[in-house]
Amino acid sequence: MFESILNAIPHHMDFDGQRRAERYFQLIIVVFAVSGLVWGYAVQQFSLTVYTLGAGFVLASLLTLPPWPMYRRKPLQWQKPKTSDSGAKSAKKKK
Q1: What is the rounded CA–CA span in Å between residue 56 and residue 62?
Q2: Domain limits, the chain
Q3: Which of 30, 43, 45, 53 is the most buried (most CB within 10 A)?
């Protein structure tokens, strides 16, 4: 039962989606780190810097870790598998 529920949820991400997710994650972390550093320095409270960075990490994780549909736009096209008849024919040709 649990396996059928798990298989119903899409859990793949294409290569382009992986690249975009990585870029978004890095961008969000850097923006929150810089803004947290500036804000923490302005109020002279280092804990606010850490909280801001933590909030950025949570936001970046929620936006990039699940395989959202925006990360599955360009699926990889696999080649069609060869039939067993064509494999037998190629083996006969080698002999």
Answers
A1: 10
A2: 1-71
A3: 53
Dmax over CA atoms of the chain, in Å, equals 81
Q: Which two tokens stand for residue 13?
A: 């991400």
> Which structure tokens are listed for 74?
């360009």
Q: What is the mean pLDDT of each run of 10 residues along the chain (95 residues)?
A: 78 88 97 97 96 97 91 84 68 58
Confidence (pTM) = 0.72
Residues with Cβ within 8 Å of 75's Cβ and at least 6 positions away in sequence, in order, are 12, 14
Contacts of 16 (CB under 8 A, 6+ apart): 73, 74
